[in-house]
Write a structure and sequence with these properties.
Blueprint lengths: L14 H18 L25 H8 L4 E6 L2 E2 L3 E2 L6 H11 L3 E5 L9 H11 L3 E4 L5 H9 L4 E5 L5 H13 L3 E6 L2 H5 L8 E5 L10 H7 L8 E5 L5 H9 L4 E4 L1 H4 L4 H9 L2
Parallel strand pairs: 1-4, 1-10, 4-5, 5-6, 6-7, 7-8, 8-9, 9-10
Antiparallel strand pairs: 2-3
Length: 278
Amino acid sequence: MSVPTRLGPPSGRSPADILRAITERRRRRLAAAGGSLAPPTVAPRALQAPPRTAADNPFVAALAARRGAAVIAEVKLGSPRLGRLGARVDPERLARTYAAAGAAALSVVVEPDFFYGDYELLRRCRAASGLPAIAKDFVVDLLQLEWARAAGADAVLLIAALYRREELLAWAAAARRLGLAPLVETHDPADLAQLAGADWELVGFNSRDLRTFAVDLGYSVEIGPRLPAGALKVAESGIGSRADLERLAAAGFDAFLVGESLLLADDPAAKLREVLGP
C-alpha cells in the first residue's frame, strides 16, 4: 500500500512482520466468515487462461486509453502509519472529486483492521464516481474475490510476495474467471521471477522498500524496463508531482497509482490536476 515518505515501519515492527501480521489477521477474519483459506483449485490448463483485455474489462480499458498518463486515484480510510483518516476523508465525495479532476480509475483499500476499509466502501465509491475500480486487499481466500466482484470491482490486487508461483497463477486465474483483472504488485527482482513464462494484463511495481519502508522512485525507474512487455505497467507509491509521473513514464510505466499525496492534500482535485499536468 502507499507509504510516500521515508519513515520506518510503525510500532517498531519489521516490514516482514507487518505484512505477516496483516495477512494472519485477514486469515482469522475470513475463517470466522466461513472461508476455506486454501489457494484456488485450478486445472493446470486453466492456469494459462488468457489475461483480461481492454475489450472485456473496464479497468484495463481505462488504463490502456490513457497509456502513459493514466492515474489510479486511491481512497482509503487510514493505514498503519497514518492511523484512522475517517474524520478527514469523505470517501464518496473524494471519489467523485477524483472522477471530475481526471482520474482514469479508482483504487479502494478494503482491508478492515489496518486500513479501516471494507467492500461496502468499495461499492459506494465505485457507484459515486462511475470510475472502474480495483479492490486492494491482502487476498488469501476466494471469498475476497467474490466480495470484490459483488461490490462492483473490475480489478483486484494480488501481492506477489504473499504467494508461491503456482499459487499466484491460480489466484490470477480465479480472478479472471470472475471477470476481474488481477494487478500483480511486485517489490523486488524475486517477485518479478514469479511472473516469467506467463501472460499478465497488469503488473505493478511498488517503490516502497519492504526492508526499510523508504520510498525510492529511482528503484522503480531501474526496474520498469524489466517488467513484462505485454502488461500494462503500474507505478505505485511516492508519486506526488507531475515530475514524478513524467520520470516514471519515461521508464516505461503506463499508469500511476497515487494515494496519500491526494488524500492528505488540502485540495485533492487541484493536486490531481497538478500530477496529471496540462
